Amino acid sequence: MIRKIPLAAALALACAFPAAASSMPDAATQAKITADLKAQGYEVRKIDSEDGMIEVYAVKDGKTYELYLDANLKIVRSKEGS
């Protein structure tokens, strides 16, 4: 019984990671996002994925932003941070 718990946990984690990894933009897409946003004056700090959208943490004019991009890599929502 003790061995089944770690095995079950390992299987649950193994099933969860492929789904999370597939939602992350690939390296080429991340490079395009970084280049596009740099052209708009942003400094990209981190690219992630949330709720089926690409989430980018960036800085522009000394202010931090959370930018949400759609599948066409267009900003559809932005939130200014602190």
Task: Tell me about this structure.
Keywords: Signal. Residues 1-21 form the signal peptide. Residues 8-78 form the PepSY domain. It comes from Defluviimonas salinarum. The chain is of the alpha+beta class and 82 residues long. The chain has a domain at 25-80. 40% of the residues lie in helices and 35% in strands. It is built from two helices and four strands, in the order ααββββ. Strands 1-2-3-4 form a four-stranded antiparallel β-sheet, covered by helices on one side. The longest helix has 20 residues, at 4-23. The termini are far apart. 11% of the residues are buried. Mean pLDDT is 82; it is low at 15-22.
Question: What features would you highlight for this structure?
Answer:
4 strands; 82 residues; 2 helices; 35% strand; alpha+beta
Structure in a nutshell:
The protein is an alpha+beta fold and 82 residues long. It is 40% helix and 35% strand.
- In terms of structural class, how would the helical and strand content be classed? alpha+beta
Amount of beta strand: 35-45%
CA-CA gap between termini: 49 Å
What are the segments in which pLDDT stays under 50 over at least 5 consecutive residues? Answer: 15-22
Number of DSSP helical runs:
2
Shape: globular
Keywords: Signal
Pfam families: PepSY_2 (PF13670)
Signal peptide: 1-21
Protein name: PepSY domain-containing protein
Secondary-structure blueprint:
Blueprint: H1 4-23, H2 27-39, E1 43-50, E2 53-60, E3 63-69, E4 75-80
Antiparallel strand pairs: 1-2, 2-3, 3-4
